[in-house]
Structures
1.
Amino acid sequence: MALIVQKYGGTSVGDADRIRRVAERLIATKKAGHDVVAVISAMAGVTDGLIKLAREMSAQPSERELDLLLATGEQSASALTAMAVNALGGKAVSLSGAAAGIVTDGVHTKAKISHISPRQIQELLAEDFIVIVAGFQGQSPQGAITTLGRGGSDLTAIALAAALKADDCQIFTDVDGVHTCDPRVVPESSKIDEIAYDELLEMAGAGSKVMQSRAVEFAKKFGVGFEVRHSQKELPGTRATEVTPGMEEVVVRGVSLDRNQAKVTICGVPDRPGCAGQIFSALSGVNLSVDMIVQNASSTGTTDLSFTLHKDDFALAEKILGPLVSEIGASGMMATTGVAKLSVVGIGMRSHAGVAARLFASLGEAGVNIQLISTSEIKIAVVIEEGELERAAQATHAAFGLARPRSQEDGPR
Ligand code: ASP
Ligand code: MG
């Protein structure tokens, strides 16, 4: 008998029928002889709807009240799931995050879990209940309801799996796992069977959003193995683990795409100490985080400095930097939102040469111009024109041999 934590995302509990299907799955897991803890997200669209309502009440709602409000989304979905299990002849009880023993700091809307006292969950499991926990929330030591940041139910599931020393953690979602590339852009992409935590983190940062990054970081820190899989299918998904032997043989695990990018170039920045500091202090002063930063070596006493940031932050960045450009003596600023980022990710890069060469050559052959390049130990990212992203993705995916062999089931192309 194993203890299994299963997390169901918003679309998996998106309506009454889907909640019933989740309930059936929970009962089946229990009938297979396992102890089951289910972490439930708010029904699809509910969190966004509540945020919208809050904004109608106040332009800047109190974060304390926002947490109290948003936590109800997960609570209702959990209670409904428990009702469905019970109606189908199973035995379930639902708990709020607080009742489940999840204690956080007091930072409303992005609280960190400080510890979990799962006593009540364990007692209920011992009484043979399927225990359903409202995701995304906890309680501060002062007793205030807190939430864990958008997508936080993933973190609830991973943290509970760690605290309960669960045998497995399954993250059920509306895709069948993590793919080598976005299947809408590259139809030949395939599901990845096994991925290292670090690869998943880089791919999330590069725009492949299957899991909340904080949840993956937590899993890495505490060695919680988990599987991302489809909630409506009986198929194995993608298993995330520490690096296993053989994983490094694959040079590139996947290609991530991110269209939410904007690029700013400050031209003719004087080549003297303090200029970069002034530019990025101004941005961090209004809480803007930047992604890639590239500065050229100067041979003429001035240099160009480029960086990327999220499209949503573009207008504010332009406004903040406008006056600063002349203040520091730069010659001008060029800013555009028509860019996208493509990243190749793989821990195998650490031990294989020629990855950059292969990426750049394939982009060159596809006629795609590279605007910026940045690298980490296990990732190479390029910024390109947004309109060229599809072509670039298909060329890169093919160049690294990621395409799945086509089977009969795929039908004609
Ligand atoms: N309902 C929350 C959100 O939409 C948390 C979650 O779904 O994980 O961000
Ligand atoms: Mg989610």
Note: Confidence is low (pLDDT under 50) at residues 408-413.
2.
Amino acid sequence: MTGIDSLRNVLELERRKGYTDKAVIGGLDKYLHKQAGQIRQSINNPQLVSGFDELNLANSNYGSYGVDERKRWMTNVLGWLDQLEKTTKTNSSQKVVVSSQTAAAEPRQERREGLDSSVTVIKGITSSVAIKFARLNVRELRDLLYFFPRRYVDYSQRKPVSELIEGEEQTIIGTIWQARVATLGNRKGTEAIVGDKTGNIRVVWFNQPYLAKSFHTNDRVVISGTVGLFKGHKVFASPEWELLKDKELIHTGRLVPVYPLTQGLYPRQVRKWTKETVDGYVWQLGDFLPSEIKTRCQLLDLPAAIAQVHYPDDLTMAERARGRLAFDELFLLQLGVLARKRDWQESQPGNAFHVDQEVISKFLRCLPFTLTQAQERVLQEILTDLKQAKAMSRLLQGEVGSGKTVIATLALLIAAANGYQGALMAPTEVLAEQHYTNICGYLSQVGTQKQGSEPGEGTIRCYTGFLSRPLTIALLTGSLSSNEKERLHHKIGQGEVDIIVGTHALIQKEVEFNKLGLAVIDEQHRFGVLQRSALRQKGFNPHVLVMTATPIPRTMALTLYGDLDISVIDELPPGRQVVKTKCLEPQDREKAYSFLHRQVSNGRQAFIICPLVEESEILEAKAATTEYERLSREVFPNLKLGLLHGQMPGTEKEEVMRRFRSGELDILVSTSVVEVGIDVPRASVMMVEGAERFGLSQLHQFRGRVGRDKEQGYCLLISEKLSPEARERLRLMEKVHDGFVLAEKDLELRGPGEFFGTHQSGLPDLKLAKLTDLRSLELVRQEAITLFQSDPNLNKAEHQPLRQQLSRAWSRGAEWS
Ligand code: ADP
Ligand code: MG
């Protein structure tokens, strides 16, 4: 008799005896405390194990209850037992293999090694296998539990041999009559004849002669695969197979998981290992989600979800499992961003700025243009934030050329007017330098520049006329000499510089601001959340303005930037035109070159972007150099070409950009470093090689670099021969000129990882959650907000598992306090 059966007997007896605690000698509690562990072991459905745990029989307190309480308790436990029985029954009738054939499934071997143990505790995972798993980011048992199949093959349709249908995925259970090494085609393989009561079928495995050894006459075997026809006879060719022993089927006869693999990992092994891990360890996961949320959102328990996502009972369960796990991902993400926002805004007071209208008007009067309505609106939103004694946390979105920099400059000016320092961080030196030049350009309209007197002060300028004192602005990049850097660090530390423009160099630990009050971060998606907080920590809770030219779809904004308020400049300055865009194939390249020639002879300039080389800036730089040499020699020998890539020293880059901007160069050959922000009014052609490798948003950014004055701009996208779908995607560039629409498309077609490189962003991984599903996202967000409001620091006892999970999810460097 199993533990479950005797438990039921005891409880029924207790009920019959009128809840007098006389059913067992010594009382029910003593019995339960002793037996609970064993009973638990005999439950082989992980979904029910957690239900069992909730009954908490190991710590039962029956003896101390009054009769009414005892009745309630009894109904509860017996109800659970009924449910267990029901599930076991339906399960065994649904499964292909009924239990009389498999013998009763073995009790699950619950194992005690912690989930942070190395995967090598699983039998068969040697250290060299572990290295292969590490390539898939699977190192600990927990990772293996969270190593999800990409999809499933449906081998659940069991058929008698006589009813097999050609061309469908089906499963048979039969007996091996014969198995041998055979020559199939002209290679050795394995051939077997398998039969059941209704007939026999030939089964062959190409190129796997060694399989013959695994099969013996009269072995029972399960074969899953597609039935084909060979010389008029049905045959299984290289199907999945599994000998029928006392184990649950994992390769055949069910929904079989298909895992992502890497060289040297094979599907059968991986399935065996994931099964063993799930069976042995999933119980340790517990569940970190509060049960009200699970009930409200109808979510599976975590252990059940993990078990089902690997080895689902059916597609509905697989879907539900994925739903639960996707919920977790988004929920943890949301809680994390909410906590960040709270930390920044509420844990400590921010600096309320006084906004001096005089300073603003003075600045605006001197611009050669008036602000667009959208710029006006956004400026007011920002100024309103700056006046609060609560740190601003705002994302400013606006297409390339929509005029974000002017707005940022004004905000920096306000900070300076309040006696605070302001920093502007850009993702590349080229951009930092350009911002510096532009800001200086704006300021010089008003102020008179005081030249620095010390040598090496080219990166510091000083303006009078804005404030009651001189306004100092400096450029800090990695390419300064260490002497210059040191001097600048000193000045920054002393508060002798008001506005500092720079690259990552700004967040190095040597940089200590005297009084940082506003941090502006340009082109956000190049920076991770972590860099965002690094700059934030340089000041005493400074205001933060993040600018991006990549339109961010609403779902994305809610998740990845859920900690930021959002402003949008949705209007371009007047007179901007649509850049004519054309997708071309390699054979059109010559025509494209002559077009460039003509444009240059009309006094225009052109960009040629080299293909993206993922993962290696060095290779990308090399490829760009080769292309530059070829173009200079063979295609445009009479024109002046320049080369720009990420490996060049900053001074060289600046020099090339300066020459291009001044019109000294006709064509700039570049890697994707020009993607963001570069402003060259006379450039009219953007030619992109290997266009298919870039995201649509990125291409849109490139395109934004041309047509910046009255002259028509052109964008030529050259790609390899493409599949119809890939071609269709690229073609969108010809028709669509709205960055938001392109961004939505990108997200839909390429997923969030591609879109923003979430891997580098310090955010939790999203493996299952779809960021395109706005509805479920808003549901999750609502749940997160509700929970956050009721227990913002997750201090309640019942939230401790959640708190732990949260810090685990955000662990890659991101602190949770
Ligand atoms: P973004 O940073 O959003 O790409 P910028 O601030 O660099 O855009 O502005 C792009 C160009 O447009 C700059 O040359 C800038 O001087 C100019 N500009 C900005 N705002 C306006 C406006 N309201 N009217 C006309 N030109 C503008
Ligand atoms: Mg810009």
Note: The two ends are 51 Å apart (CA to CA).
